[in-house]
Amino acid sequence: MPQRPELSDLNWNLLRSFCIIAEEKSLTRAAKRLNISQPSVSLALQKLEEQLDCQLIFRGSRHFALTLRGEKIYQECADMFRAVDRIGVLTEDRNDEEFGELRLSIISQLRSPLIDEAIRLYHQRHPSITWRIEVQNSAETVRRITSEKKGLGICLLTKPLINLTCRHLFREEFSIFCGIEHSLYGRTEVTARDLQQEPFVAFNCATEGMGLEPMIMLREGMGLGSRISGSSHDLEEVQRMIVSGLGIGILPVMTVSEASPAGKLWPLRLVDQPLGADVFLINSPLSQPTPPEQKFIDLIDELLKLYPDMI
Questions:
Q1: N or C, which end of the chain has less CB nearby within 10 Å?
Q2: Can you say how many angstroms the Cα of residue 239 is from the centroid of all Cα atoms in its chain?
Q3: Rounded to an integer, what distance in angstroms lies between the CA atom of residue 83 and that of residue 88?
Q4: 52-59: which pairs have CB atoms within 8 A and are 24 or more residues apart?
Q5: What percent of the chain is predicted at pLDDT more than 90?
Q6: Over the stretch 85-123, which tens digit does the pLDDT of each residue have?
């Protein structure tokens, strides 16, 4: 039985030359493509056949032809060099070389195509950066970023804060809602006067003097909430109490859009008095954003400029 040739020291240049010979179907054209002389190409082919101990190309025929073993070896070599070429392409992609963590504080139950697209596109561009998203109310986020002088937050604010960098993202619409058993259920229009004596379900942050949270501004601006019938720091629990009939309450329209069609909540639309608050991306101007944070800020600016309809 013939001994298998030792391939551990096989010359890759010989294999590359053989692949080009097979692809060009000519020693002359292969020499031109390799930018070397034809005798050098012939010598490379001869050395490879000696190392492999087999004939790769028929000699003396008028038409170029690989032997059966030559064809099989060419297919293996072609696959191998295609894989090498793919490795070269992968080394050109620098996105995965950027590591780090992006910490983002965000208000609960925020519905936003802009934020969704920013997260999707950010991960696509920087897949090795990990995310840490924390749900906080606006007052907590402002307090933390102001004291720590670092981090990013997405907040609801009635106006920009002078001690923070506030980038306006979009306006979130609010409405006053009541449950199906409330006496005002089904009314198409109401006035603030109609609601001022109604029991009110509030967020905890809006009952503890944290004036940064827009709900307290909206509520106090209309003179609502003189009697608090229930409160929670969780939006879903506030919504549950309103549905259960504890009182009226202010909720983001987009957040409760799934509950309203089922008839559980009814929007009490005020005559000529739309409710809303602005959503901002905030960070401290007293420290430089980290590279992951700066990439997110730049991406938000890019999306705001390219897709204004997303706002």
A1: N
A2: 29
A3: 9
A4: 52/5, 52/7, 53/2, 53/5, 56/18, 57/21
A5: 23
A6: 778 776 665 554 567 889 999 987 788 889 999 999 999
Whether 228 and 202 have beta carbons less than 8 Å apart is answered as yes
Neighbours of 120 (CB within 10 A): 10
Query: Which pLDDT score is estimated for 252?
Result: 80
Strand partners, 134: 105
Pairing of strands 165-179, 265-268: antiparallel
Q: What are the two backbone dihedrals, phi and then psi, of residue 4, each rounded to the nearest 5 degrees? A: -70, 135
Q: Is the whole model's pTM more than 0.70, yes or no? A: no
- Structure confidence by residue, pLDDT tens digits, 219-240: 666 677 778 899 887 888 888 9
Residue given tokens 């191998």 in the structure block:
80
CA distance 58 to 89: 35
Q: How far from the centroid of its chain's Cα atoms is residue 183's Cα?
A: 44
Which residues have CB under 8 Å from 46's CB, separation 6+?
none
DSSP-based three-state secondary structure for 226? coil
Q: Where are the alpha helices (DSSP H) in 60-169?
A: 68-91, 113-125, 138-148
The Cα–Cα gap between 185 and 189 comes to 11
Please give the residue that has the higher pLDDT: either 67 or 307: 67
User: Which residues sit opposite 152 in a β-bridge?
Assistant: 104
Distance CA 131, CA 109 (A): 18
Task: Decide if 311 contacts 174 (C-beta within 8 A).
Answer: no
In angstroms, the Cα distances linking 258 to 138, 252, 253 are 24, 12, 10
Are 41 and 32 contacting, i.e. CB atoms less than 8 angstroms apart?
Answer: no
